Write the structure tokens for this entry.
Amino acid sequence: MESSQQHPERQEPTPPPSLMRLLWLSCWVCVLFSGPVFGFGALQTVMERDGEYAHLCENEVEAEVRVGGRGCAAQETAMSLIYALGGSLPFWSAPTGFILDLLGPTVSAGIAGVLVSSGLLLVGVSSTAPGGIDMLAFGFLLMGVGGCLGTMCVFPVSFLFPKERQGQILGLLNCLFDASSAVFLPLQLLHGLSPTIFSRLHWFGVSAGLAASLYGSLVVTWRGGHSASFAAIKRHSKSASDGHRSENALHSRSSSKRPIFERGVREQVCSAEFGCFAAFC
């Protein structure tokens, strides 16, 4: 009987190898270079061992104490300034998102690679000793901005997969972003064992080369047709949104019944939704 026949389950199409390669590259970029600035505590220990900003200590006794890894107040203040510059990612979220929308993921990934690689090199070669070039703060800032832009470039990868997988991929990338704050922990441990072999210069030099390689591969993979696919998805989403707005306008002309994203700025600010949001903030 027909009722007893079992229909074969619908199988999901297998993603092409180039798309899986794009996902793997995005995962590695995210876990290594998206948010290591938030793990500054481990790097601060390494820089204190190297004597960075030791000249800010008021006397030789404080400087000698700092070599033990504890640091004086002036030195810790300088370190905090570096973290404040590099950790200002929320401020850069809007500009980097605008760059992604304007230039697309391919060009944005290239810019992010240049920023991250340059920042890593500056942090590795900079020296705060008298006569040295203090570029630590600027290098850390480049790492933060480049990492934020790189994160923006990898999130669109999820929209190239079926809808059933998009949430899983976004969750994976978010978890990898959180895990990237532990990147400096191996440096702290290895530097404590052998400061000469596992020096800051060696670590960040290798990291800069790895960042250039991964971001370069990411750019090449995006250019392999996936950038055009993402642009087509954006156009389709925009046309669907415009159609939805037109349909809502035909059914209701009342501003109070329209979705909040279709109202003007003044109407949004005066809405109950905005008041509830402001109250919780």
Summary: Confidence is low (pLDDT under 50) at residues 249-256. The CA atoms of residues 45 and 123 lie 14 Å apart. The chain is about 70% helix and 0% strand.
